[in-house]
Here is the input.
Amino acid sequence: MPPGTMLATTHLSPAHRLLLRQFAQFAVIGTAGFVWDTAVVYLTRPWVGPYAAGIISFFIVGSINWLANRFWTYRDLSHDALHRQLVRFLIANAVGFVLNRGTYITLVATQPLFHAHLVLAIAAGGLAGMFVNFFLSRRLVFR
Here is the structure.
């Protein structure tokens, strides 16, 4: 392969191909989660304010994302009981929650642009927590 050419997935080990597939599926679900997250925040903000709306949305969308990942991204794995795995998912993603909602809250509180356009803060928070959430979900929840 010439220098500077990207490595084709056919040259990857089966474990690396699995990792890439899982990350791609996790990212697709995360993108859908971003849409759901934005909808929940905008729907609940008038009653509870932007900060509580962000926290409420995390638990709602986190539960939806866990279910989608359980039945799509990690469908080939054996799974614990639903309620135990959901709790583990939410606990494992607490670090991602701090990064995600910490970024969201910081931007909303300090930047007028993000306060006026919450969708931008939601996107920034989602990106901040994505890789940590994937790693912890893969290692601690879906095994």
Helices lie at 14-73, 82-92, 94-110, 112-116, 118-141. Residues 18-141 form one domain. The CA atoms of residues 106 and 127 lie 14 Å apart. The chain is about 80% helix and 0% strand.
